[in-house]
Amino acid sequence: MKILVTGATGFFGKNLCASLKNIKENKERTHPGLTVDEVFEYDMASTPEELDAYCSQVDFVFNLAGVNRPNDESEFMAGNFGFASQLLDCLKKHNNMAPVMLSSSIQATLIGRYGQSDYGKSKLAGEELFFQFAKDTGSKVLVYRFPNLFGKWCRPNYNSAVATFCNNIANDLPITLNDPSTELELLYIDDLVAEMIAALEGKEHHCDYDGLNPVENADGRYCFLPTTHHVTLGEIVDLLHTFHDQPQNLVMPDIPEDSFAKKLYSTYLSYLPKEKVAFPLKMNVDQRGSFTELLKTRSCGQFSVNISNPGITKGQHWHHSKWEFFIVVSGHGLIQQRYIGSNEVLNFEVDGSNIQVVHILPGYTHNIINLSDNELLITVMWANEQFDPNHPDTFGEPVEVK
Fold first, then answer.
1. What CA–CA distance (Å, rounded) separates 286 from 298?
2. Strand order in the sheet with 38-42
3. Tell me, what's the pLDDT at 81?
4. Long-range contact list for 29-36, CB < 8 A, 24+ apart?
5. How many angstroms separate the CA atoms of 42 and 351, rounded?
6. What is the rounded distance in angstroms from the CA atom of residue 308 to the CA atom of residue 371?
7. For residue 230, which phi and psi values (nearest 5 degrees)?
8. CA–CA separation, 203 vs 34, rounded Å?
9. Is the pLDDT of residue 194 over 80?
C-alpha cells in the first residue's frame, strides 16, 4: 500500500508518518496484516509536480494540510479549502479512487462560540467539497472533526494550551491561566494515530452529529474518535505541577491505564530540557553500604535499592503491617526471617544470577546478609507503603536467637 500524507511535517503529520514508517519497516507488531510500501510526505516545501506524481499512484490519502494561524483570516479559505480542491482535482486527473481522509475541526459545526469562525467556515467548505467528491467519483471519503489535540512534538505557544503549559512548566517558565474552570475536549495524538491506522484497515468509527456531540452510527456521514477527554485548564495545570515535582519528592501520581493523566505525563516529559532528563537521588551511606529510595506511589508503596558491603548484615527488625519484596539483582546473599515468639528461622539463599522475589512477612523479624568476601550485594526492595518517619512500623530484633 502506498500512502500520501499532506501536512506531513506538522504535529499530526509527523506522528502519523512515524507510525506508518514503523509499519513499513516491520517494526510495528500490532497490525501484522497491514503492509505499507511507501509513505509520500507532502508539505509546504513540496511542489505541485510532486503532488501530481503521488496522486497518480497512491492507495490511501491522509489530508492533514491546512492553515491554523494565518497572517490574514482570508488565508483560511485559501489554505484549507483551496488546497483540498487542488488535491482532489489531482486525484480526479489520474482517475484515482483511493480512499481519502480529511482532517477537519469541531469548529466546522459553526455552533456556539464557533458561529463566526472563519477557520470553521473554511473547514466546513472543505468538508462539503470532499462529500461532493465522494458523490461524483464513488471514492470513499472519511471526514473527521477533531477537538483540541495534544501529545509529543506539539508546538508550544502556537495553538495548543496543553503544549504551552507542558513546555513552560517543564522549563520553569511562567504560565498564564485566566480561567481555571475552562473545560477543553482533548484528543491524544497516539489515540488519533491508532484511529488512522484502523482507517487504513477499514475499521474507522462513523458517526452523525447532534450539535457538537458525535453520535456513533455505523452508517454515519462523519468519522470520529471514540476516546477523548474533558478536563479543565486548572486540572491540567495541577497535574503538570505534580509531574514537575516528582524528581524532588519521588512520588509518582496515579496514572491509570488509558487515563488523561497518563497521556499528559508522557506529553509533559517530551518537553523536558536536557538538564532535567537525569536527576540525582539521595543515597544514605554508611560503613555497611547504602540505601536509596527510588520511587514512591500514592497507593502502591515505594521502591528502593539497598547495597550491602561484603560480609555485612542489614535489617534485624520486623513490622506489624508493612510487608516487602526483596529482589537480589547482583551478588550472593542470605535472607533470614523468624516469626516473632518462635525459634524457627526461614533461610533463603539468593543470587543475582538467579533472580527471585522473597516476601518479607508481617510479624517476622528479618535480615539480609552479604555472603561474599569481595562483591557488593545489590537488592531492589518494594514496600507496600511509603515510609513514614512518624509511624515507621519498624522494631529492632535479631533474627538469630541465642
1. 29
2. 38-42, 2-6, 60-63, 100-105, 141-146, 222-223, 206-210, 213-216
3. 66
4. 31/197, 31/201, 33/201, 34/1, 34/197, 34/200, 34/201, 35/1, 36/1, 36/3
5. 56
6. 10
7. -100, 120
8. 12
9. yes
Q: Is 352 exposed, middle or buried (0-12, 13-18, 19+ CB in 10 A)?
A: middle
| Whole-number Å distance between alpha carbons of 342 and 401 | 9
* Angle (deg, nearest 10), helices 233-249 and 260-269: 60
Report pLDDT for 70: 44
| pLDDT score, position 80 | 56
pLDDT tens, 29-66? 888 889 999 999 999 899 999 999 999 999 999 999 86
What average pLDDT does the segment 130-134 reach?
Answer: 94
Alpha-carbon distance values, 207 to 29, 101, 134, 197, 224 (Å)? 29, 15, 17, 18, 6
Closest CA to 60 of 140, 144, 146, 145: 140
Between 81 and 308, the higher pLDDT residue = 308
Per-residue DSSP letter, 220: -
Q: What is the three-class DSSP state of 369?
A: strand
Q: Annotated active-site positions, please? A: 119
Q: How confident is the model at residue 301 (pLDDT cuts 50, 70, 90)?
A: very high
Phi and psi torsions of 386, nearest 5°: -65, 145
Residue 162's H or E segment, with its range, is helix 161-170
Strand partners, 324: 360, 383
pTM for this predicted structure: 0.91
